[in-house]
Amino acid sequence: MDEQMPIGVTIQEIIQETPSIRTFVFDREIVMRPGQFVMVWVPGVDEIPMGLSSPSSITVQEVGDATGALFAMLEGDRIGIRGPYGNGFAVTGRTLAIAGGVGVSPLLPLAVAGRVDTFLLGARTASELLFVDRIEEMTTLLVATDDGTAGHHGFVTDLVSRVDLADFSHICVCGPEGMMMAVLGILDLEGCAGRGQFSLNRYMKCGVGLCGSCCIDPDGLRVCRDGPVFSGDMLLRSEFGRYARDASGRRYGV
């Protein structure tokens, strides 16, 4: 795909995955690596970065104007796609995946490819657990819900104590930043932060490394080009888990 211009695609299917999350399947397959993202143009509204849940789909939670407009679309409507961008997950050997909420989406292609040995999945409640049946078919799955309606009653980070981190060459993580920061803290205490791979979500304008809107402090690493997946040891001294920046560049807590 051209890096500068979105390619028009038609929404072929809309799947209601949970009460708040939908998968939009489009009529074009993108050659991608698990963890890469695309810029999704919603005509007349905005262009936003979205992780790919398959070569031909994005899985979306309604959280703002662009996703709200996307949720108002119907099968047969058209959107624009640019990408894929970023470095994605890079794994060899045994891999542990840890996901919270819709953060499971960019990790799903890794599981589908047979690259995940154990998957820890968390959500607020049972009805918001995403892709459970598919993941169970491919790997060992442990589940946690905040309210205890499925699996462990508590946070997905609680499940980390149920596995031996020494068994895994790579630990791939995606979800709310507070959750990911808690996982990074555990890995750091265990002396294995460098084996963690964390998928960051930051405001982006261009997606190709030119505008600088997604740079993270203090080293100016660009999430769109140097990420979105970063090793844990790279993030220990960064803004990760403390703040991000909005469209105007102002800091806000994460």
Outline:
The protein is 14% helix and 35% strand. It has 254 residues and is α/β, with parallel strands linked by helices.
Description of the structure:
The protein folds into 2 domains: 7-85, Translation factors (Elongation Factor Tu (Ef-tu), domain 3, Beta Barrel), CATH 2.40.30.10; 95-253, Nucleotide-binding domain of ferredoxin-NADP reductase (FNR) module (Rossmann fold, 3-Layer(aba) Sandwich), CATH 3.40.50. Helix content is 14%, strand content 35%. It has 5 helices and 17 strands. It has helices at 65-71, 108-112, 132-138, 177-189, 232-235, and strands spanning 7-18, 21-26, 37-42, 46-54, 57-61, 78-85, 95-100, 118-123, 140-145, 152-153, 170-174, 196-199, 215-216, 221-222, 229-231, 243-245, 251-253. The chain has a 7-stranded mixed sheet with strand order 10-9-8-7-11-12-15, with helices on both faces. The longest helix is centred in the last third of the chain and has 13 residues, at 177-189. The chain is globular. The relative contact order is 0.14.
